[in-house]
Amino acid sequence: MTVQLTRVSIVTETYTPEVNGVANTLAHLVKGMRLRGIAVQIIRPRQNRHDVDSIEVEEETVTLPGLPLPGYKELKFGLPLKSRILSALQRFKPQALYIATEGPMGWASVKAASACKIPVMSGFHTNFHQYGKHYHLGLLENLGYRYLRYFHNLTAGTLVPTQTQRDELETHGFHNVSVMSRGVDSQMFHPAKRSTELRRKWGVNDNDLVLLYVGRIAAEKNIKLAITTYQQLKAADDRVRLVLVGDGPELAHLRERYPDIICCGTQRGEALAQHFASGDVFLFPSLTDTFGNVVTEALASGLALVSFDYAAAHEHTQDGVNAMLAPFGDEAIFVQRAGLLLDSPNRLRNIRYAARHTAERISWHTIVDEFLQHLAAARPEEIANGTRETNTAKSRITVS
What is the mean pLDDT of residues 71-98? Predict the structure, then answer.
C-alpha cells in the first residue's frame, strides 16, 4: 500500500537563493509539495552569519555550521552533526527523507534517519567526482565513485535525471537507481520576454546574432569551448556576439582577457528570463552536468541549442530538428554545428520554433508527482539499523 505523504524532510548542501541546478531543482520540488499541502523540512548549511532557523507550518528550515567547498567558495558543505540532525528529524517526524548531496552532512543524515527508521531516498545531482582534475583534487576523482557508490547504496534508492546516468551508475555498482527527470517553467521562460532594450544595453541590434551562455563561469563547465566557438563564428561573421550570464572563478580572468565578451553576472527571476529570451543561440559546452536545467530553460525561451549529445539535450532534443548536437566530447563538431546556424536563417528560425514547442511538453507538475511516488515507495526497513540489502546483491553494508 502506497503511503500518502504529508511530511517530507530534505537534506542539501545548497538551496535558494543560491544559484545552481541543485538549488533550482529543489526549489521546484519544494514548491510543488507545498502546493499539494505537504509540509517540508529543509536541513542545510548556514549560508551566512545572518542565516537563522525558521519554523513555519509549510516549511521548516534547520541550518547547521558549514565550511567552504573547495573550488566553490560561495557554497558550503555542512558538518556531520548527527545529534542536531537526529533532533530535527525527531521533532519534525517526516515520513520520508530525501538527501540531495553526498557530503558529511548527508552522511550523518543517513545515520540519523536509520536511528529513527525513516525511509531515505538519495539524489545524484552533481558529477563532483569529475571535478577533481579541474581543481587539482586528483584524489577526489580517483576515489569519487567508490565513496558515492557506498553512500548511495546505504539509501533505499537513488534518483537520477536521465536514463544514461542510470546506466552509468548501475555499471559502477549502484543499486536501485531510478530516473526522475526535470521540468521547466515554460511560462517564466518564454520567447515573449525578449527585450529590445536589454539587447541595446548589450550593444547589439536586431541584425546581430547573440550566442548566450548561462551558468557557472568555471573550468568544469568547459567555458573555454564557448569562447572558442564565439571566436570562430565571429571570424566568419562580425555580427556575432557572446553574452555570459553567471558568476564563478573564471569570470574576472575572462573579463580582462576578452573585453569584447558581454558579461552580465548572476541574474534571477524575470531578469534571467529576459536574458534568456534576448539571445538567439544557446551554447551548452559542459561535459560534466548530470542534466543541465539551463538547457530546458533555453528551449522554453525559444533559443537554438548547441550542445553535446548527452544529459538534457539527449533526453529532449534531436539533432537538426530542435537543436544542433555534437557527439560527446567532439569540440570540432560542436563548433561546426553552431556555424551551421549562421549559414541558414531558415534553419535557425525552424529550430528555435521547435525548441519552444518541445519545452511546452515538459512539466514540473509531473516531475513532482514522480518524486513523491519514489519517496512513498521507499521502506524504512531497507536502512534500519544502518544496513541495507539491495535487490540485486545480497551483500550487506554496515555503518558504524
Answer: 89
